[in-house]
Amino acid sequence: xxxxxxxxxxxxxxxxxxxxxxxxxxxxxxxxxxxxxxxxxxxxxxxxxxxxxxxxxxxxxxxxxxxxxxxxxxxxxxxxxxxxxxxxxxxxxxxxxxxxxxxxxxxxxxxxxxxxxxxxxxxxxxxxxxxxxxxxxxxxxxxxxxxxxxxxxxxxxxxxxxxxxxxxxxxxxxxxxxxxxxxxxxxxxxxxxxxxxxxxxxxxxxxxxxxxxxxxxxxxxxxxxxxxxxxxxxxxxxxxxxxxxxxxxxxxxxxxxxxxxxxxxxxxxxxxxxxxxxxxxxxxxxxxxxxxxxxxxxxx
Length: 300
Hints:
disordered N terminus, 300 residues
């Protein structure tokens, strides 16, 4: 009997221990899940939520659950990569350092942008007047355009400076053996930086101008212009944002210059900063900023 009691007591203890393990508290509070002992916090999910840039109508709870699954899968893959020793490789260390630096710069820029004041009504009126190509004077421009891959040595395109019509440019490129395409395309003046647009506007009628694009060169002549109507209720808030971005850019440029002047920087031979290029002729334009002006249609 005594042996039976001992066995019975041992059995009860084992059962109690099992039940205790099963009733261990589930993740709660700031912890959404635990993956092989590693916590996934609500802060991590919220960071994913911000990066997803969801529409206001999205079901937030459903999206959070989906994002949590992505995080869990990512952590499992991270663990698998660490088991392979990938986190110890030079390639990983280099890319990790780059990613860390980019994130720090991004957060620093966000902090500095918050310090830029909100402009006054006078500031905005002046800004919109100075950037007429984006706001009141925005136009849809029809171009006759020649497009060709950028050569390895762009300096040989200097011969195009003597050409004052697109037909002449066509003949020169043909003589150089450069294949190109010619077509009529549209250009929104709001997509061209104001200083570049002023240079284009200052050219004689029919004078070609260059717009470099990633991997390509385009030579253009204006055929016609058509005004684009602007919704003032949308344009002004965007002008506020553009004004602050411009001031932020100026602030950051000054900070970088000050940091460089106060830093001790040495270069290996051949790696020093390149000399700033002189302004090209014909005028070079890169229509990348600001983005399409708000309140205006994107098509002619």
